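chain below, 143 aa
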Amino acid sequence: MTVKALIEDSQTGASAKVSPYGELIVSSLAYDTASVQSMTATATAYSFAPPVAGKKVVITGIIFNADKNVSATTEADIVLYCSSVGPDSLTSAGSILEVGLIKNQYLSVTPLNIITDEGMWINATTSDATIHATVLYHYVEEL
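prediction:
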C-alpha cells in the first residue's frame, strides 16, 4: 500500500525530500559559525555571538582548552553565559556552562542544541588568563 504525502512549510513553501532509496532527507536549519577566542585577561567579558534582530542563537558545540600556563592544581574557572547588556558585559542573564580546568586539560561538548532568548550576546569569562575557547553556533528565526 502506498500513501502519498507532502511535508511542506506553509510560509516558505519548502518541502521535505525523499531520496531515490526511500530515505527522508533532513539537514540542519543552518550551518554553524565557529567563534574562537584566546581569553588572555581575567574578569573580562569575551563575546562569541552577537544578537540578531528577530533571531535566537543556537549553540551546537563548546570547546575549552587550558594551556600549559594554567596551574596544575588550581582550576581556571570558565563561565559561558548570556548577556542582555552587551558584548563587554560581565552581567549574566543566565549561565550556559560553568567548568573548571587545570593545566593542559580540555573540554569538548558536542553535539549540543541550546537555544537562547532573542537579544542575547553569548559571552564568557575566566579566572585564568590562558584559556582558549571555541563556540559553534547558528541563528534561527523566532518561531
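Residues 12 and 141 are 13 Å apart (CA to CA). The chain is about 0% helix and 45% strand.
thats it, cya
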